[in-house]
Structures
1.
Amino acid sequence: MSCYHLSRLLFDLKMNESCVKRALTDFEAVMSEYDLTDEEKAALRAGDPRKLRQLGVHGMLCLYIKRLHPEFRDNIYWQQK
Amino acid sequence: MPLVSALAASHAPNILLEPGAEWEDFMNLHYSMAPQGSATRPTLDQQKKLRQDAEESFGALRAAMEQARPDVLIVVANDQFVNFFWNNIPTFFVTTADEVKGQFTRHRFHYRNHKELGRTIVRRGMERGIDFSFGEHIELQHTQVVPLYFLLREPKIPILPIYVNTWVDPAPSPRRCYQVGELIREVADDSNERVAILATGGLSHFPGSPRIGEIDTEFDHKLLALMREGKGRSLVDYSVQELLQAGDTEFLNWMVVIGVVGDAKAAYTSYMPDFVATGWGFVSWKF
């Protein structure tokens, strides 16, 4: 089962600053723009990269869900690609 | 002019992050994927020592390259979901842009791209049965700019980024990467310019994987010994799976440069595991 759309959302959280900005204020609205299953949405809401990995997302894309986590929001890692 | 210099170096982001708070940020994020990795978290003194040792190694590589007075530096690296996504993953990609840019924390990078050399490589590949992807826009990322920060901070010469898919399955075989290197060598030897080449990545590490924190130092030492002995060619018989098992898929970038140098013995090697994720390796060949 492809997780293309789930991966695409995480790719956009990496590459698209306006997507990150909108996701920080209304993540449900951002998720609704992607073709996601209920299971994928639940994993995104949980914010746990390991759950996303279990759904088939590449490990380095999984990490980008952490951009929305208060503890990691200002992490230096996001200032490089 | 022939090929004048060949180099290979790791591109781990923490090489260019500052010891202390920036390293802590980096480690916290990675260990959130694999908490067991944090068992060997390096102290601030160890972080500083690693940075110092890496700078020393890069210094040796930079001196070797500058001594060779190259007109262009080809940079063989992998994308990590910056330029390429699941809608299209090129196995080998040659940059035919006029210029290339990128940013790493507060460091900005901007180089002329040697598109004529790029187009020559693509054309020669088509004559020889290697069909590269190519394109006129890429964004530089840590896989290129971490080594470039230390090797070519001032954009005195153009670069030519070439990408190898080391990143998503299926990746090309070590043999195919070697053949790409042979092709680049042929083009370099026919060129009127002095060509240098740099491979980046590795050595052993498991980014984004539950195995992060493991470093197969034994495998890395074996790779470096083969390069010192001029026996890198023997690695064409390895499978991608064998490299993957050792966390060394980015060694596919290095395999291109091994195809470029053929049986030449490496003049310089150094190696240091960073206690976080990656075995940092540095190699240069003289011609």
Note: Chain B touches chain A at residues 13, 16-17, 21-22, 25-26, 28-29, 32-33, 80-82, 85-86, 102-106, 139, 141-142, 167-168, 207-210 (CB under 8 Å).
2.
Amino acid sequence: MDMTALLLSRIQFAFTITFHIIFPSFTIGLAAWLTVLEALRLATGRPVYRVVFDFWLKIFGVAFGLGVVSGIVMAFQFGTNWSVLSKMSGPIQGPLLMYETFTAFMLEATFFGVLIFGRSRVPPWFYLFSTAMVGLGTTFSAFWIMVNNSWMQVPSGFVMENGAFVPNDWTKIIFNSVVWSRFPHMLLASYLTGAFCVAATGAWYVLRKEYHAESRIMLRMGLGLAAVLMPIQLFFGHLNGGYVNTYQPSKMAAIEGRWNDEKPAGEVLFAWPDVESRRNLFAITLPPPFGSLIDSDSLTAGETGLNSIPPENWPPVVIPFFSFRIMVGCGMVMLGLAWLGTYLSFKRRLERNRLVLWMTFLSFLLPFIAILTGWFTAEVGRQPWVVYGVLRTADAMTPFLSTREATISLLIFCAIYAFIFAFGTFYIYRLIRTGPAGKLFETPRLAVPSRPMSLANAGPIHEPSHVGAGE
Amino acid sequence: MVMFWVLLLAISILLYVLLDGADLGIGMLFGLARGEEKRRVMLSAVAPIWDGNETWLVVAGVILWGAFPVVYATLLSAFYLPLFLMLAGLILRGVAFEFRNKTQRMRWIWDLSFAGGSLVASFMQGTTVGALVEGLQVTNGQYSGGDFGWLTPFAALCGIGLCLGYALLGACWLVKKCDAEVRDRAHRQIRILAVSVLVFLVVVFVYALADHLPILHRWIDRPYLFVFPAIGAVAAIVLALSILRHNDHWPFYMVAVIFVSAFGTLALSFWPYLIPFVITIDEAAAPHSSLTFMFWGGAVVFPLMLLYTVISYSVFRGKVGTTAGHH
């Protein structure tokens, strides 16, 4: 076993999946937002909803395309670097990812075609239906991914046969409480990402005194939606804590920075966990029973500390400890901002309050940071296991993978992703900066469902000489 | 049930090779073309379909993982570097489609990544198949060929061969979809490429003879395998005739038939092995509980995906025309 190759493989997987998750979490939220806009347009008949819809459809196209491109890598990376895992868990993870690909291909690709071509060719109710189906497709994608990942967190419904995980109860694999607290948590996170990106864009236009009607719709609906969803999201976050506490005591102890068993337990708010000497430096702690209350919904429950878990089964304590706090911190700021903004909006004072507008404008980063740190907590906290309690990450790697190979592939990805990420985000920025521009969206003649990014070419911002396929 | 998944896997791989093979071929020919006008026309011949075509690669990948996890794990880890280079090529090719239109000054970068990405991806696919034909070095069920075990002269030869084959497929697609200059140029390229592919096939055959590749014994044991090369030969004759008669549509279909017969020859030569002479289909199959769970995806969704592919091609049928892309 080559330990450097192991480290490089882990960095590579973390890097590529971090890059990838940014785009789906954005597009799942946007697809839902587009459905709401189209429904409102049908219900009220106000043309401004159409303008806002067409504007966000273009941004959806670019983000969706980058998600597709970076997703292809994920389908192969299990086999290249983690061949022992993929051989053992293939009978379970393979079918789940197959359903992910199949349902996504079918719903997203098919109905995205209607979104691009269909405005004038299908009845309005069917156009709305298609928008909802694209949203459903992205949701299904997320669902299968969450089932897959939840199985790695809390494996169930299988027996070991000839060194492989053989499924014997798919109902348990798909319909267990872990999936159904984690999937809504991810889905809500995506909706909140969409909501804050929309609100931030609206705030930017209000600050620039542009697109009066459009910006107000974006600002109010974005913040309003976030104000409603944030408390629900905190509730599901709490449910997630429950499954971690039940099934993954080592992750829970690391998140809480809890070294000793406590009954009832206190709660560490902030600290610097010193792994060497097994204690927290500079700790700010709430006394018992706050820890038991938060982790077990109980005043008296005992909570496990890291000292009663063998150190070889510890995750790297510092990463889940801090990433969890960053996630919760972002969540609290988002909650405060959404409630404050919605309150001001009701009082009709939001558009004059430049401070809150600026904060809303800058808030688009918060949901992305929260999603990434949330995933770091879940995935790094699962270590040293790749399938919790059953298969160690170190044993899951391709046994003959060399440092040289792992270095080359990691360098390739760093270079290429940096390259396309820079261009992709710059391009989305340019679309947003230009704004809805009042011009009604024209169907690009050669754009097709399987090629969503071509939509963005339809904007008014291109030099007239540009061409290509989807003008 | 196992046969059902073998069939779906074969269809996915074949569709990928035929459909995205043409796109990659055009990507390589794009590198040879001069002048923005011609390049635009070439791009518009594949722009609306390439992304859907590439999806068949992912479909094949996830079917392989779900239905034949041992093969997925063994092949992907053995072909580590060629696979990542191929993915890098596909990513660069893919984003180039979109990004080259966003800029004037930097366009050369995206043109380079388009042609270069297509070339690298094609070469790596061919090399991988070549290395597989030659035989994967496996000790105790584990790949033992090292970082560059796949890079043999024979494999590299197959890499070049597939580049030529894809370019031929691409040129035929251009003849089918385009007019005027682009079509005429592709027409000339078809002659050169067709002869090159023929030479390549002869060289590969001689190499296989000289090197006593195990595949040859299969041919001697199973004379009925010669049906496929025979079909390929007929297709090659029709191809030659259709080129001489300046037909725009037949060349593509004939080259497709040649690809199908080559695919059939390889697949049946190795039967019942999924990784030649190492792992058979039955040894590789996932447990029954996995295959039955996947069944509805294969029986209901897969046909819909096929239907969808047919529809998107029919929406896009006909010539793209020389004015494509002008405002």
Note: The longest strand of chain A covers residues 267-274.
